[in-house]
Amino acid sequence: MISGCEKYFDKVEEKFRGMEDKKTNICCTALTASCLSCSVGKSVEEFCLDGNGKNKGVKGCEKICCRALNADCNSCAVGKSVEEYCKDIKN
Per the structure, how many domains does the chain have? Predict the structure, then answer.
């Protein structure tokens, strides 16, 4: 403790008591997947896959594909449209 601050310490301690337990996220404000996912408290992957693909066009989400075993996810993983993917499947 710095000499001369003792009389103020109790007031400062009382004001900030418990704040060390709170997590504060300071997020960037760019319209990118990393900034936007931070602002809503999600991982980039969760953000990009959220909302039935509404976030897919956000910068940083272009390469993130769902993992289900269906035409939408599989076509995304190989970089094709669903139609192209389905036509290329070997039965």
Answer: 1
